[in-house]
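Quick one, probably user error.
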């Protein structure tokens, strides 16, 4: 899988790479502008219940799953905006479900304060799936 990503990158022309960089800068600008009106953005980590070990073992065969796993986290990898991921619930199988908070550029202090406040108010960070549940997945 890594080799195919490297080859895809090598196949890009300098012009294509420059276009990608410009799109990345435009995205960063839009996200930065968003933080002129909000303090934090709360979004899921991924759009479905936690992945199972069986799903993880087949990631190389499922490019669509890889894209879905990155859908909500990759944009902030691209823009460089800080995020914090916290447990915020459990699936029907008892596996932890996470969410992420995103802050303005260089505003990690707000993320840490918000995360600490959430953990003081909720028990999710103290819960752990049972070992039996983990083995079944």
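Nope, works fine. Designed sequence:
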């Amino acid at each position: 899988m890594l080799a195919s990503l490297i080859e895809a990158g090598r196949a890009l022309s300098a012009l294509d790479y420059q276009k990608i960089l410009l799109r990345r800068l435009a995205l960063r600008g839009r996200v930065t502008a968003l933080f002129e009106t909000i303090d934090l953005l709360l979004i899921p980590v991924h759009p479905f219940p936690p992945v199972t070990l069986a799903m993880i073992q087949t990631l190389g065969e499922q490019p669509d799953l890889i894209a879905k796993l990155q859908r909500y986290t990759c944009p902030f990898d691209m823009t460089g905006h800080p995020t914090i991921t916290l447990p915020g619930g459990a699936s029907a199988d008892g596996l932890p479900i996470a969410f992420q908070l995103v802050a303005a550029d260089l505003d990690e202090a707000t993320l840490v304060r918000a995360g600490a406040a959430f953990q003081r108010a909720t028990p999710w960070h103290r819960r752990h799936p049972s070992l039996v549940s983990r083995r079944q997945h």
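The beta strands are 40-44, 83-90, 96-103.
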